[in-house]
Write a structure and sequence with these properties.
The chain has 190 residues and is mostly helical. The chain contains ten helices and no strands. It folds into two domains: 97 residues; 52 residues.
């Protein structure tokens, strides 16, 4: 007869204990990223490693405002790459354009290095604009031409796909899977 009251009492104690423990542990928070140092003193690559979790469409602008990239060629290249990963192509372009003209291609090569795994993974919606950005600064980058062409083909942009894949074949002469894929897509576009 007292058993339900005992169960109710133990349940109440368990809830109170959970509230006390939670209060001592602090407020509940969402998933945490590794912290980015307020005044970063490491290399551009280390900066990028720490900020990369924030290189998404929601957090990229605030993260870079609070923790700007190092003011080096590499830092600005990685900063542009972070914006590009977050889909902020205009901000990536503005970052590259603030560099001296002779350094822009080098920084765009960093953007390519960061965006290439996205293209290799087959994310055409994300990779296409990144590869187009790279091509604005390195027009003869054969892998950017290939990935831009494949992305445009997948996104039903035949004229651009044709243009980029033909340019890819003019620069790249190995007889391998990339060449064969480019030729196959060009044949389908005729």
């Amino acid at each position: 007869m007292n058993r339900p009251l005992y169960l109710l009492g133990f349940g109440y104690l368990a809830i109170c204990g959970a509230v006390v423990l939670r209060h001592r542990a602090g407020p509940l928070r969402g998933p945490e990223h590794s912290p980015v140092a307020a005044s970063f003193g490491g290399s551009a690559g280390e900066w990028f490693s720490s900020i990369k979790p924030y290189c998404n469409s929601v957090e990229v602008e605030l993260a870079q405002r609070q923790h700007p990239a190092p003011a080096t060629l590499g830092g600005q290249g990685y900063g542009a790459a972070c914006y590009a990963l977050g889909g902020k192509i205009d901000l990536a372009r503005a970052t590259l354009d603030r560099l001296p003209a002779v350094e822009r291609a080098q920084a765009a090569a960093i953007v390519f290095g960061v965006g290439h795994p996205v293209a290799d993974a087959g994310d055409d919606r994300s990779a296409g604009p990144i590869m187009e950005l790279v091509l604005d600064y390195i027009p003869n980058h054969y892998m950017a031409l290939y990935h831009a062409g494949m992305s445009e083909y997948a996104l039903a942009q035949p004229a651009l796909a044709r243009k980029h894949l033909k340019a890819f074949l003019s620069y790249y002469h190995e007889n391998d899977g990339w060449t064969q894929n480019a030729r196959d897509v060009l044949a389908r576009l005729r």
